[in-house]
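Regression test attached.
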Amino acid sequence: MKLGALGEFGLISRISAQVESADGVITGIGDDAAVTVLSPGMQLVTSTDMLLEDVHFRCLWHDPYRLGRKSLAVSISDIAAMGCIPRWALLSLALPSGIPLDFLDEFTRGFLDIAAGHGVSLIGGDTCASRHGLIISVTIMGEQEPGRIVLRSGARPDDEIWVTGTVGDAALGLELLEKGENSFSVTHGEQEYLVSRLLDPTPRSAAGRAVAEAGLVSAMIDVSDGVLADFGHIAEQSAIGGVIRVDALPLSSAFCSALRSRPASLHHLALTGGEAYELLFTAPVANRNKIAQIMKKCGVDATPIGIVTPSPGVSALLADGSSYMPRKHGFNHFS
Ligand code: ADP
Ligand code: MG
């Protein structure tokens, strides 16, 4: 069955039938606007993201279930990077009228699965026809106590720079999809892992919230554009600089084995590869052990990768002490 046969309101009912009632939602999908209540004393934190077919994803590579998951995952990641608790989401879809209903059902299933996994409820959205591919827009709302929200602007000289998980995997996954796995020496399992890091990222929701609530971090961002570019955003907003130690960057075994014969690409992708959706944060050196403990409790690896400097400018140091400066720091839509 095609979407045309169901119509706009049929699709909205089909989505809302799968949404369960949730804490804090007075009125969800179905009225002109949703009504929600924040927990007592909390501030509202809001973020929005667009995903465009052939800009952010290709239907050829992205199965609808994982596309649904990723559509919300990137927004949950933004809330995590503020140290906040994700609560509610709005989902707006511009859909080619020929899109199969199975695709939309799988998309919705993926979206609602990751929502449930992170305590997010879908409270509304908008649905319209598109003449130029699939467009997905997600708005997320979260909450946190006023003093606990972590901005990009709080990094201080001599703070350590940290990153969770591993970096570069998603960017390499994209290269594998673009060039075909035969151009790399990867096993099938490694290929699956790297591609799934691109298609189904894991937002570090619990970890971001936990280090923020413990008051341990000074600035935080999620790695969407690449470690260098995203640390650059912290540096700019905090009016500091930093040195990132390339040999300290946490890399997965699949990433290292795929790039064994191309060490230059290894450094480049680790520093500039986007879409990792890991947390990059700064913290006083004295908090190192506490951060490690909290991350362990959250089941997330976190690694110190450098140091904040008082002078502006971000550089990357190789093991031999020479500095490594890629021409491009990371992803930018218009350059
Ligand atoms: P309006 O005409 O007032 O904009 P709509 O007909 O667009 O209302 O939407 C009706 C209801 O369905 C609203 O509560 C809206 O939030 C919800 N809704 C519309 N599209 C979606 C969607 N893709 N996902 C979830 N809720 C949706
Ligand atoms: Mg509408």
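Expected vs. actual: identical. The longest strand covers residues 85-95.
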